[in-house]
Design brief:
This protein is of the alpha+beta class and 178 residues long. The chain contains 5 helices and 6 strands; from the N terminus they run H-H-E-E-E-H-E-E-H-H-E. Helix 2 runs antiparallel to helix 3 and helix 3 packs across helix 4.
Length: 178
């Protein structure tokens, strides 16, 4: 039995090493919070979350959340006449304004997620990628297809707690638009 003890300890440590730091339940809670935050941006003229946010934990890297959003709830049906150039321009300007709001919400969701995902190691990252939906007739100048924000969990926690200034946080936050 004494010879078996080292084998059992080794097996137990291997199982513990395979157990993810972040559970599926924790990811699901953040996913729901992200979807709710986008839907709550403007209840009178909502943004449209197309499908549900999905998250995955990558050991040694961090968590990655992705979703697809239309910055304007579709109000166009096949029975509507084609939009005029003026209407297309108004839609474009509205989406440009709403993109600024979406970026702010993404940053807030990174901060909240870092705090919520308590078992995520401080050196790992929190990533939130949003794919933006457009119709073929839309004007796309200045509007990206995707916005991806990411930062180390530690930087997010430090900023949220007020122990890091905005300039330091901006240096830690990586924002990419494609």
């Amino acid at each position: 039995m004494i010879r078996l003890l080292p084998v059992l300890l080794l097996a137990a440590s291997a199982v513990a090493a395979e157990r993810p730091n972040v559970t599926r339940e924790e990811l699901a809670a953040v996913e729901q919070r992200m979807d709710k935050a986008v839907r709550a941006l403007d209840v009178d003229d909502p943004y449209d979350v197309l499908g549900f946010t999905r998250g995955v934990y990558l050991p040694g890297y961090g968590v990655v959340f992705t979703t697809e959003v239309s910055l304007v709830m579709p109000g166009i049906t096949p029975f509507d006449p084609p939009l005029t150039p003026a209407q297309i321009e108004r839609l474009h300007q509205k989406k440009l304004r709403r993109l600024v709001v979406m970026r702010n919400v993404m940053e807030q969701m990174l901060l909240v997620s870092a705090e919520t995902l308590e078992r995520l190691p401080a050196g790992e990252r929190v990533v939130y990628g949003v794919t933006l939906f457009y119709r073929s007739f839309e004007k796309r100048d200045g509007l990206p297809s995707q916005v991806v924000m990411q930062a180390p969990r530690q930087a997010l926690l430090e900023f949220r707690a007020g122990r890091m200034g905005r300039a330091q946080f901006d240096a830690a936050l990586r924002v990419q638009e494609f």
